[in-house]
Specification:
Layout: H1 9-18, H2 27-35, E1 40-43, H3 50-60, E2 64-68, H4 72-84, E3 89-92, H5 98-109, E4 115-118, H6 126-133, E5 137-142, H7 163-168, E6 174-178, H8 183-192, E7 199-202, E8 210-216, H9 220-231, E9 237-240, H10 244-256, E10 261-264, H11 270-282, E11 287-290, E12 305-308, H12 315-322, E13 332-338, H13 340-351, H14 357-375, H15 380-387, H16 400-403, E14 408-410, H17 412-429, H18 435-443, H19 448-452, H20 469-481, E15 485-488, E16 493-496, H21 500-504, E17 511-513, H22 539-556, H23 560-563, H24 566-575, H25 580-584, H26 591-608
Parallel strand pairs: 1-6, 1-7, 2-4, 2-5, 3-4, 5-6, 8-13, 9-11, 9-12, 10-11, 12-13
Antiparallel strand pairs: 14-17, 15-16
Helix pairs in contact: 1-3, 2-3, 13-14, 13-20, 17-18, 18-20, 22-24, 22-26
The structure holds adenosine-5'-diphosphate (ADP) and zinc ion.
Adenosine-5'-diphosphate (ADP) binds next to helix 3.
């Protein structure tokens, strides 16, 4: 690995073009490999700085860097962001008019492009392949490489065809990048993209600026409103819901309560989706309420929170979705409200899903891992990273279980009461019921349904008056999460599992968690917002710079972060540069932006005094 010296061309590009001082993490090693013609497979968390890993080699090596990306709707922004840095970039995809396409092709063949973004389906066309044959290629970058994984959530069949790159251009280096962390996905990418000989770079997947919180779901709309009002007022964020209907309903509720929110789901016309996405990227402080159809490749660096109103189906999904918060490295919140109904619903969805038994078992395993994360009394961050095979010492201090450790209690007897109720209903009566009836029986409630089925005659009737209804629901939830109970059929009736018998026979202890009495807020002095951690005296200048940036972005019709990111504005507000030389020292101020915005920024600083 080359050490970074001032004469290193890669470091020179980093400083001159991007305005950054030093490479982060594995960037230097990855870039060195690709600059020298080697293949690389890069796993880095969102916000880790993957783009520089192919952009810099494309600028250093002769020829054009070809970037394969599935994110057609974002290519224009990516090209605009590069243009703002003075990098010559263009894209080829189905949205271009034939005239624009010809202009891009001409520029490419004339050697006038540093980077060319293409959609994967484009590489299936003879015309595009022939076009690339006529130009020197610096490298192929395969972004969002996990799209090649057939079992993953973002599978794109066109990605399977990308092995053509290696066959057709064996001497051009390839770099595949993803934020999907599991070893299984990595192996699948290497195999399907013919990258087994590539160097693998696996970064730490920790996102230290994200505070993880998983709260018991009680009144989700109110809980969400509390979060947005008390901790993230006026800030950009994403709220994930499972269904289109709940997206619409939640967005409407937020709007009724004075919060600027937009819906996004696959049922909306493409033009509405595109318009909402564009507004989310361009305007400050919008909340996007969306299904998981939204978010991949969204580069917006200042998403301050990601909230889940429904349980994600897997830890991978949860990590990807929450990872969209805080790409700029500033404090951010990942918040999930989770309850019994989520577990029942997810188990039902798996049971009624298409596919064979092996597929359902696979879905079940994913859900189990997600439930284990929800129910843990240990550090969430440590458990999340352990899932991806990475060690963390725990006690991170910025997840809810570290901020307010939940108590564990011996739930064996409570578990036995629930399980024997289910057992008796089934064995003595041949009946199956859902959670509601089981809890009513335990509490000895005199309801019409209890009388109709003569459940007051069961020996377990009323044995549960030591716990409240909510506590019983939490017990059932944890039994479902631990696989000691499961649900069947469209009504979600409770049934025993193979492991239930061990608890009933007193051969197994059941540990449960008490929910902390008060909801956890972000740690003191760590408020997750863009102005956080700025000295109070610098906040007015920071806000003035933001206002200037908003005007500039609007005039140009580009997202604000393309002008300057929040982290750079904070750097300027702290440094208060009085000259262009000083301004150039701030991280994120490269040559091109200095020339373009330098005087205007200095004027804002001078005016703020
Ligand atoms: P990823 O694609 O891995 O999610 P990005 O490439 O979008 O991450 O980078 C995330 C943010 O970090 C961007 O704002 C980027 O400009 C910034 N960044 C990347 N590398 C560096 C670096 N070496 N120094 C400072 N900032 C960096
Ligand atoms: Zn923790």
């Amino acid at each position: 690995m080359a050490t970074a010296t001032a004469t290193d061309p890669a470091l020179d590009v980093l400083r001159r073009v991007f305005g950054y001082d030093a490479f982060r993490g594995e960037q230097a090693a990855v870039i060195d490999t690709v600059v020298n013609g080697g293949d690389a497979l890069v796993l880095m968390p969102t916000g880790g700085g993957k783009s520089l890993c192919y952009q810099i080699p494309a600028l250093v090596r002769p020829g054009t860097g070809v970037v394969v990306s599935p994110l057609i709707a974002l290519m224009q922004d990516q090209v605009d962001a590069l243009a703002a840095l003075g990098v010559r970039a263009a894209f080829l995809n189905s949205t271009l008019s034939s005239e624009d396409r010809r202009a891009v092709e001409r520029a490419l063949v004339a050697g006038e492009l540093d980077l060319l973004y293409v959609a994967p389906e484009g590489l299936r066309s003879r015309a595009t392949l022939d076009l690339l044959d006529r130009t020197p290629i610096a490298l192929f970058a395969i972004d969002e490489a996990h799209c090649v994984s057939q079992w993953g959530h973002d599978f794109r069949p066109d990605y399977l065809e990308l092995s053509v790159l290696h066959q057709r251009w064996p001497s051009v280096p390839r770099i595949a990048l993803t934020a999907t962390a599991t070893a299984a996905t990595r192996a699948e990418i290497a195999q399907r993209l013919d990258l087994e000989g590539a160097r693998h770079f696996v970064s730490s997947f920790d996102r230290p600026n994200i505070t993880y919180r998983i709260v018991p779901k009680d009144r989700p709309d109110k809980q969400l409103l509390d979060l947005l009002r008390t901790e993230h007022a006026g800030e950009a964020g994403i709220v994930y819901c499972l269904s289109r209907a709940s997206v619409e309903r939640t967005a409407a509720t937020l709007v009724e309560n004075g919060i600027q929110a937009l819906p996004y789901h696959a049922g909306l016309p493409a033009s509405v989706r595109a318009a909402n996405q564009s507004r989310f990227l361009r305007e400050d402080g919008l909340v996007m309420v969306a299904t998981i159809a939204f978010g991949m490749g969204i580069d917006k660096p200042d998403v301050r929170f990601v909230a889940h109103l429904d349980l994600p189906k897997s830890v991978e999904g949860y990590y990807q979705e929450t990872g969209r918060a805080g790409r700029d490295g500033l404090p951010s919140t990942a918040w999930l409200a989770y309850g019994l109904a989520d577990v029942v619903q997810q188990r039902k969805l798996i049971e009624t899903s298409d596919g064979d038994a092996a597929h359902r078992r696979n879905l079940g395993r994913h859900l189990d891992a997600m439930l284990a994360l929800c129910e843990t009394v240990e550090c969430r961050r440590a458990q999340l990273l352990a899932y991806f095979g990475q060690e963390h010492p725990g006690a991170c201090g910025t997840c809810d279980t570290c901020l307010a450790p939940p108590e564990a209690w011996d739930g064996t007897v409570a578990a036995q009461k629930v399980l024997s109720t289910v057992f008796r209903l089934d064995r003595e009566r041949g009946q199956r019921f859902g959670v509601g009836q089981v809890v009513d029986i335990l509490l000895g409630r005199d309801t019409e349904k209890v009388r109709r089925f003569r459940h007051q005659e069961l020996s377990v009737f009323g044995v549960g008056d030591d716990l409240s209804e909510n506590e019983w629901r939490a017990v059932v939830r944890q039994l479902l999460a631990q696989g000691l109970l499961t649900v069947e059929g469209a009504h979600g009736t409770l049934v025993l599992t193979a492991a239930s018998g061990e608890v009933l026979a007193r051969r197994r202890e059941v540990r449960m968690r008490h929910e902390p009495a008060r909801p956890v807020r972000a740690a003191k002095g760590r408020k997750a917002s863009a102005a956080a951690e700025l000295a109070e005296a610098d906040v007015p200048l920071f806000e003035a710079l933001r206002a200037w940036r908003a005007g500039e972005a609007k005039t140009q019709g580009v997202p604000a972060y393309i002008v300057f990111g929040d982290a750079t504005l904070r750097g300027i507000a702290t440094a208060r540069p009085g000259s262009l030389e000083r301004l150039a020292l701030v991280s994120g101020v490269g040559e091109n932006k200095l020339a373009r915005y330098g005087d205007a920024v200095l004027a804002v600083v001078a005016e703020a005094g």
